[in-house]
Amino acid sequence: MQRRALIAGTAAALAVGTARAQEGFPARPVTLVVAFPPGGQADVVGRPVAAAFERIWRIAVPILNRPGAAGEIGNAAVARAAPDGYTLLMALSSMALLPEAARVNGRTPAYEPDQLAPIALFSADPTVLVVPAASHIRSLEDFVTEVRTRPGQVSYSSAGNYSALHVPMAQLAQAAQLDMLHVPFQGGGPALTALLGGQVNCMASGPGPIAPHIRSGALRPLATWGRTRLAGFEDVPTLIEKGYPDCEFYIWVGLFAPTGTPAAVIDRVRESSRLVAADSEFRKAMAASGNTLDFRDGDAFAQFYAEDAARLVRVVRALGKIE
């Protein structure tokens, strides 16, 4: 009887403690790390997420851009951060493949995916192949012809080796047997700036960062990596429908916390993330930036993440070592 009472009392105390932890969070600013410079997909989605969290929590949620090594530096920083919920990561899909890329290249990974716990997915869009509007390349067919005519000379920018902007272009190069010149930068923002500045000939990008430049007439979309045509880009064919069935890639943006963060805190952030997804200002910001809201949390996001990560690891192994 005494033992039962002790167990019941312990359970009740734990429940109260969990509730208090959830109610008390956050009590100070929460840093949202973006592992890329400003202007890339994670940053474009992360800023309105942070702004919505601030409205919900009435606590500052500063964005900390920690670029480098295709996102590896920022991802690793959050993986090593105190698991208390006060350091979160707004990650790209490449987060799942970078440790495998390190192993393929004979390096010890800076972090492992299981050091980061998935909380919520905010967007998942296929990448889009774009060229400057002034380019004589007007279609995917023109693009393939151009690359084959000038092997090794048509250049594309990316956020770094094995990044979410590099992998889809590598997929296309494999599928269409193309020889292109890869020019890696420290993030999607600088990669896009290089394209707009005429330093490279093309790039693959999430729709958010390039949408304003397509609307302004600065860039021309040629194809997307989706299974179906992308909303807002209905006139742009998919690579699959153009005869490249293996060219399917999604650049997603999701929220993660260091593994070991208390369940009550994770629950609090997850519940707040649902409120973010329903927030009218956040929705307006997503629409204005050209990003499709695709909110998933809990088991739905965990399953999506696990399946996508397995596919991306296979792609990295097929790419092999990059000298």
From TrEMBL:
Keywords (A to Z) from UniProt: Signal
InterPro entries noted in UniProt: BUG, Bug_dom1
Signal peptide interval: 1-21
Family note: Belongs to the UPF0065 (bug) family.
Descriptive protein name: Tripartite tricarboxylate transporter substrate binding protein
Organism from which the protein derives: Roseomonas alba
